[in-house]
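Lecture 7 notes: from sequence to structure.

We start with a single chain of 257 residues. Read the sequence below before looking at the structure.
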Amino acid sequence: MIIKERNGVSFYQFPNLVKFTNIRHGIFTRKGGFSKNPYQSLNVSFGLGDDETNVKQNRNIVSQCLDEKELVFAKQVHGTNIIKFKENKKDYIQEISDTPLVGDAMITNIPGKNLVVQIADCQSIFMYDPVLGVIANVHSGWRGSINNINSHAILMMEKNFGCNPPDIVANISPSLGPCCSEFINFKKEIPKKFWEYRDGSNHFDFWAATCDQLNDAGILSENIYLSRICTKCSKDLFFSYRGEGVTGRFAAVIGLK
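Now the structure, written as tokens:
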């Protein structure tokens, strides 16, 4: 991945997305914000116990790094609900500030809307169709993987935006790697069809599972980029729920210019 810096704040970008000049994106680290321990320091999530003033300032920092454009957040619930924003269509959804959107994936073809996923071990999957100018940001933890939220998002990109899966470029953020993704009670939590991703020590490779799901939904292997950065192994850079318990969430953002 490529490290960028703006206004003294570092964030990561994907090599196969930087070539597209009509999108902006960034995987922000936990550094450069206002929050105190255990949320130190660029925590962008409310409802975790952090001071709300700090969270607002942190979100403003992220916005400034992205040309001060609108950041679109949703209440993530580890489900499969997908929020769509369509340009010049009757089913365009207008955000209401006191009624948070609920969903674990967002799709849009509207310029200026920067879709934000908040993570601390879960995957953020950026999807971009450069032919039709459509983006998606998917929040997928192990529950999202089990429910294959990725295929749900791709299907909506097809049906509601006219996208062709082989045109889509997909990128998987830093997240919990197979080195640290242990499930002691996997027989109760993980369906048997996912056991092929388990090693002898009850660790699961959800990176591989996501790549397979993207392939099965029609995205070409050469259009998938996997960051291969484990958040638990990199707690100095990223928040990790597995590694810290009470902690913040870092921002994964993609938007159309």
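The chain has one domain: 2-256. Keep this in mind for problem set 3.
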